[in-house]
Amino acid sequence: MQKVLLFLAVMYTFILPAQVKYGTPINDKLPEKLNQLRRAISVNNFPKSIDPIKIDDRYYWKHNTGILCKESEITIIEYGAYLFYNNTWNLRKSYPLKELNKNFKTKKEVMKQSQPYTWTNNWRTDDTLFGGWAMWYFIGITKDGETVCGYEKIETTDKLLN
After folding, report:
1. Contacts of 92 (CB under 8 A, 6+ apart)
2. What is the pLDDT of residues 1-11, one digit of tens each?
3. What is the pTM of this model?
């Protein structure tokens, strides 16, 4: 019985990573919820490609994310991040709107026209070292009632800096 359990444990460690296929996203392929919306929110990640550092037993991909709307005031109604694997964008997390105010310093989820908002410590962290692609997205409503979006891809590498 112990040999069977050991065999299953070993097989599980080989099968599990093989099931996720990371790749490079196709530029025009977007998640369904963003596909039909006009892109009116500028999203910028810095840097565009992030190498991790190791602190204690965790890896950190340190970057920031900035958002801006040039044409009008926009009220954000949803934001979050997707991860790209198995040849598609998969929702990682939609964040509570109160966190937008805390992280980006907006008030009542409102982005004023031409006012930049930046989340300076928007870091990915994990206990496993792996690279891949993420995409931050924002959905909002203009003063005219139009639902619009913004998004930007970001690459995380497995090239450890320290």
Report:
1. 80, 81, 82, 83, 134
2. 555 444 444 44
3. 0.83
